[in-house]
Amino acid sequence: MLAWLAVVLLAVLACVIVMVGMFATAWRRTLAQVEASGLRYRMRCESCGHEFSLSPREFARIGMRRSRSATRTRVEGPMLVNEPHYRYVAKRFVCPACGEKVWCENLNANEARDAVNPIALRNFGLALAVLVVIGFAVRAVLA
Known about the structure:
The chain contains three helices and five strands; from the N terminus they run H-E-E-H-E-E-E-H. It is α+β, with helices and mostly antiparallel strands. A hairpin with a 6-residue loop joins strand 4 (79-94) and strand 5. The radius of gyration is 21 Å and the shape is elongated.
């Protein structure tokens, strides 16, 4: 009985490790594809007003972010799709002009969202589909 429980717990642990690995790989693949698309984030320093651009890798760094958005519902085929429409998005960066870490407004947030969403959905959807298949396989073996 104890050996069976150990096997099940090891299988669950292995699935969690595979899941984290697959989502980390999907995240890296998404960033690489977005960078290859040529997308640049246009930013404006809220302190001095200087405008500059960032690569997707620089923009994706961990940091504080604030935004205001309104959800817009549109009909796409037989589905109702809710998408946020950003009125304001800002993130804390070191401004290249004034050299201080300040809030910088993203001037092309909606265009960036439109470019990134299809790539991210494709990569993370593939990772999720693989995980579902692995889950069914583990369930069939353990049943």
